[in-house]
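Tokens as discussed.
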């Protein structure tokens, strides 16, 4: 019972923290203030990873991913661990952050901008241009819906230990607007 209560408290805290972020992401996909500051925390990357893993373990359709790059800054950077949900392709909506495999074999997590006949146009928050590739049924993996921020990125030995056990999402910059804080 205590385990379920702690998991519930963690999920409530997560959903409360993400409420403001999700409302901003769901607004007009063509406008966004990229000058927002990065979230501040004193949590280590390893603790953020452990917390995200505990939450993901409560649902079979959730996976943990680590990030590289700044294309979705300030919402997530290499200092973050994401929760990714395996969602039905038909349930995608403008404003969600879709995770897909690009032609280079990299996993990308960018915002869904527009539904077109062959898939979804995506764009990172820091990019002025849309991604050159569509998110479609074949390359779609899920949506990023939870962010666990850390004070810094992972240590090299942590990366070596987790690389086979968590997804790795790579930042893709197309005509980047660099506003890193």
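Sequence:
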């Amino acid at each position: 019972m205590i385990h379920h209560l702690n998991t519930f408290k963690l999920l409530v805290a997560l959903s409360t923290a993400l409420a403001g972020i999700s409302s901003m992401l769901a607004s007009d996909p063509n406008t966004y203030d990229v000058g927002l500051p990065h979230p501040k925390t004193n949590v280590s990357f390893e603790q953020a990873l452990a917390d995200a893993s505990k939450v993901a373990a409560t649902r079979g359709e959730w996976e943990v991913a680590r990030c590289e790059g700044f294309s979705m800054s300030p919402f997530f950077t290499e200092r973050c661990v994401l929760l990714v949900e395996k969602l039905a392709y038909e349930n995608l909506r403008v404003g969600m952050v879709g995770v897909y495999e690009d032609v280079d074999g990299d996993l990308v997590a960018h915002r869904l901008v527009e539904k077109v006949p062959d898939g979804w146009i995506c764009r990172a928050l820091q990019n002025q241009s849309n991604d050159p590739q569509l998110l479609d049924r074949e390359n779609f993996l899920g949506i990023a819906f939870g962010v666990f921020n850390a004070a810094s990125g992972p240590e090299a030995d942590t990366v070596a230990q987790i690389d086979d056990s968590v997804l790795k999402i790579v930042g893709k910059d197309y005509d980047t607007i660099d506003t890193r804080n």
